[in-house]
From TrEMBL:
<dbReference type="Pfam" id="PF00026">
    <property type="entry name" value="Asp"/>
</dbReference>
<protein>
    <submittedName>
        <fullName>Cathepsin E</fullName>
    </submittedName>
</protein>
<keyword id="KW-0378">Hydrolase</keyword>
<dbReference type="GO" id="GO:0006508">
    <property type="term" value="P:proteolysis"/>
</dbReference>
<keyword id="KW-0645">Protease</keyword>
<feature type="active site">
    <location>
        <position position="281"/>
    </location>
</feature>
<feature type="domain" description="Peptidase A1">
    <location>
        <begin position="86"/>
        <end position="402"/>
    </location>
</feature>
<dbReference type="InterPro" id="IPR001461">
    <property type="entry name" value="Aspartic_peptidase_A1"/>
</dbReference>
<dbReference type="InterPro" id="IPR001969">
    <property type="entry name" value="Aspartic_peptidase_AS"/>
</dbReference>
<dbReference type="InterPro" id="IPR034164">
    <property type="entry name" value="Pepsin-like_dom"/>
</dbReference>
<dbReference type="InterPro" id="IPR033121">
    <property type="entry name" value="PEPTIDASE_A1"/>
</dbReference>
<feature type="signal peptide">
    <location>
        <begin position="1"/>
        <end position="20"/>
    </location>
</feature>
<feature type="active site">
    <location>
        <position position="102"/>
    </location>
</feature>
<keyword id="KW-0732">Signal</keyword>
<comment type="similarity">
    <text>Belongs to the peptidase A1 family.</text>
</comment>
<keyword id="KW-0064">Aspartyl protease</keyword>
<dbReference type="GO" id="GO:0004190">
    <property type="term" value="F:aspartic-type endopeptidase activity"/>
</dbReference>
Length: 405
């Protein structure tokens, strides 16, 4: 388990970089707040990372497909603490916490690493809270308190305070940015709890429940970098190219559908008129492909699943040169090999030995959703989102994607 400390210098830099574009509500223009993020990674065993992504999807799929089985008590669960996440420094009351930016869940909570101490603005609601993510989770008490990011925030946000947390060493909890229905059944005595985005709107901090997210891959062999941006209340046109393609959200997540997948000129499916259903999730690292698409990809690319890393590996001296693409909303989204392959500069940091590197033509950041019990599903994780701007528009119940600038 590795803990990452975020330096006071970075805190000062972050606060200095925060920008806000605010206009009068009477002008009917959106109030927007832009906040930079930091990506940190403590990956030493990629197979653990892959297992975490599969466990997360398996939990999501079983819970929201109506096929959930009796879950193991959180205190009995096992979890590996391989961290690869974008972090938002978030102030709750008078304390500052490092929270994972997660569009695949909706509860905001603290207390995994830095323990929460209620101040004058904190109020214990008396309700218990429990959230399971498949790869970890927490149980505790639900509070209301002032919450702010980059100096801008709300006075009365519902937050969980962990008494027990599994799988979150090195961070303090989660900033939940998923749709509100994902909070159903998590807090005792209430049907849903307002998300941070909803509270920003209800308290008049922003005019529209629209979130834009920009990520960027870490360059070189560095383990961390300040290279992500959240825009609350709208989108930032400087962070994407061309037009945003919007499609209606498929509940309960930020769900989308894909009508086709291709590897170069090779069709990977679907083999019928039906589209595959998936969702966009900043809490997942890999790009999890539908089972038939994943199998077809291995065949046409001559790749295989490497048992030591869990990644898709190509034969030595056979680095792929073809793009992979999918169609959403009539628009083709394409990733080049340089985008979907793990950069060689990151090999050592991710626990890939020189011997493994020599024996491989590269490692693709793809996984098989069927392994997680979702054969026809897919997930666009941060390995995709680092090359595409994403928009989560609760005002119009839609999801948007565009190439990153």
């Amino acid at each position: 388990m590795v803990r990452i400390g975020i330096s006071s210098a970075w805190v000062a830099t972050t606060i200095g970089l925060v920008t806000a574009s605010v206009v009068s509500l009477d002008q009917r223009a959106p109030l927007t707040i832009t906040v930079p993020l930091k990506k940190i990674s403590t990956i030493t065993n990629t197979s653990h990372l892959v297992a975490n992504d599969y466990a997360r999807l398996q939990h999501h799929h079983s819970k929201h497909s109506g096929n959930a089985t009796t879950r193991v008590a959180l205190g009995e669960a096992s979890a590996t603490n391989e961290l690869n996440a974008y972090i938002a420094q978030t102030k709750v009351g008078s304390q500052t916490f490092d929270l994972v930016v997660d569009t695949g869940s909706s509860n905001t909570w603290v207390g995994s690493d830095t323990k929460f101490i209620a101040g004058s603005t904190g109020n214990n609601t008396g309700n218990a809270v429990e959230v399971d993510y498949g790869s970890g989770g927490f149980i505790g008490d639900e509070y209301t308190d002032a919450v702010s990011i980059g100096g801008t925030g709300v006075k009365q946000q519902s937050i969980g305070v962990a008494q027990l947390a599994i799988g979150f060493d090195g961070v303090d909890g989660i900033l939940g940015l998923g749709p509100v229905e994902l909070t159903q059944g998590t807090v005792q005595g209430v049907s849903e709890v307002p998300t941070f985005m909803q509270t920003l709107v209800s308290e008049g901090v922003i005019a529209q429940n629209i979130l834009g997210i920009s990520f960027a891959p870490i360059q070189g062999s560095a383990p961390e970098s300040t290279n992500g941006v959240l825009t609350f209340g709208g989108v930032d046109s400087k962070l994407f190219k061309g037009n945003i393609t919007y499609t209606p959200r498929i509940p309960p997540f930020w769900g989308i559908s894909a009508s086709s997948f291709k590897f170069g000129a090779n069709s990977l499916g679907p083999n019928s008129t039906a589209a595959y259903l998936g969702f966009v999730d900043t809490g997942t690292t890999l790009i999890l492909l539908p089972g038939p698409v994943f199998t077809a990809f291995l065949t046409v690319s001559n790749a295989s699943v490497d048992p030591s890393t869990g990644f898709v590996a190509f034969p030595a001296n056979a680095k792929p040169t073809q793009d992979i693409s999918f169609v959403m909303g009539g628009t083709m989204f394409t990733m080049t090999p340089e985008q979907y392959l793990l950069p060689q500069a990151q090999y050592a940091f991710w626990g890939i030995s020189a011997q493994q590197a020599q024996a491989s033509g590269g490692y693709a950041l793809f996984g098989n959703a069927e392994t997680a019990g979702a054969p026809a599903g897919f997930v666009l994780g941060m390995s995709f989102l680092e090359f595409f701007y994403s928009v989560y528009d609760a005002e119009n119940d839609r999801v948007g994607l565009a190439p990153a600038a």
